[in-house]
Amino acid sequence: MTYLEGAKDRYAKALVDHTRFGMREVHASPNDHGVFESDAFRSIPLLRKLHGKAIKQFGTSGGGNHFVEFGEVTLTAPHPELDLKPGSYVGLLSHSGSRGIGASIAQYYTKAAMAQCPLPKEAQQLAWLDLDTHLGMEYWIAMQLAGEYAAACHSDIHRRLIRAVGGRIMARVEHHHNFAWKEIHEGREIVVHRKGATPAGNGVVGYIPGSMVDKGYLVVGRGHAESLHSASHGAGRMHPRNAARRMWSPSEMKKVLTQHRVTLIGGSLEEAPMAYKRIAEVMAAQKELVDIIGTFQPRIVRMDG
Ligand SMILES: Nc1nc2c(ncn2[C@@H]2O[C@H](COP(=O)(O)O)[C@@H](O)[C@H]2O)c(=O)[nH]1
Ligand SMILES: [Mn+2]
């Protein structure tokens, strides 16, 4: 039995008491954070309206595939950014985004782009904003703020849980996906939108999750030019949500969780681990993009529901 399995009740209680999931749940007293002082919240009218909502939802996770979980980290190779010796550690992994404010920003500027792009109806979702226009610049700033807000939410989630279970943070790894970056490739500045992908520039430390039962991988990017310094952001789904609901029963899902010694709090059949691709195959397919320096095996997983 591992340390986390022995201390399961305490860690599970911390997840129940100190995380909030779904559309409505919020913390009784949201913490403050520097991100709320950002100029963008004052200077962009849409963000001014979203400031209160951002504070209210701070440190919460959404529904669907958002999760917060404790697991076992095995570091196999040292890395200067991590300042950790190879060995075993307790890990805390969270997956969520910029909550309601990100969705409102995307909706608002997509509508604005559609209004000014003369595209046929079936292609309207491809409407764009020129980044050299006022609206385009505004969107870029708002999207960056949404990214900073999401990162701040993760640190709040981690801060609350570390306070609840004790201990200290020895190393932290951030992994962004479904976001856009301005980068130089082949001497040209371009916008790289990594949808279902994550940065994997040379020496960049990242994390690629598997599922709630499969281990994920701590990786270092190899800066592969043809992938625009990117790698897969996770195993990814093999079956869509509605198919997953039909394919398995709750008792089949429970059996898989028990086999892998994983405790799930909340969750649904839509997020059954069997609905995801096998991460080992995904990692084998992207050997040229990243080197593996460790793993994270989920043990206690909290989701909405
Ligand atoms: N450690 C866990 N990983 C999970 C879980 N559910 C899904 N996943 C993996 O994360 C990515 C998230 O990507 P997204 O595109 O759905 O945002 C997904 O591809 C899976 O590989 C989980 O409960 N725990
Ligand atoms: Mn995601």
UniProtKB/TrEMBL annotation:
Q: Which PANTHER family match?
A: RNA-SPLICING LIGASE RTCB
Q: What does the Swiss-Prot or TrEMBL cofactor note state?
A: Binds 2 manganese ions per subunit.
Binding residue positions for GMP = 65-69, 177-178, 209-212, 233-236
Name a single GO biological process.
RNA processing
Reactions accelerated catalytically: a 3'-end 3'-phospho-ribonucleotide-RNA + a 5'-end dephospho-ribonucleoside-RNA + GTP = a ribonucleotidyl-ribonucleotide-RNA + GMP + diphosphate
Annotated residues that bind Mn(2+) 2 are located at 95, 177
Q: What class of enzyme is it?
A: ligase
Query: Where, by residue number, is the active site?
Result: 233 (gmp-histidine intermediate)
UniProt cross-references to Pfam families, sorted A to Z:
RtcB
EC number assigned by the record: 6.5.1.8
What's this protein's name? 3'-phosphate/5'-hydroxy nucleic acid ligase
Q: Give the protein's cofactors.
A: Mn(2+)
A GO term, aspect molecular function: manganese ion binding
- Binding of Mn(2+) 1 occurs at 66
Instruction: Give the originating organism.
Output: Parapedobacter indicus
Alphabetically list the UniProt keywords.
GTP-binding, Ligase, Manganese, Metal-binding, Nucleotide-binding, RNA repair
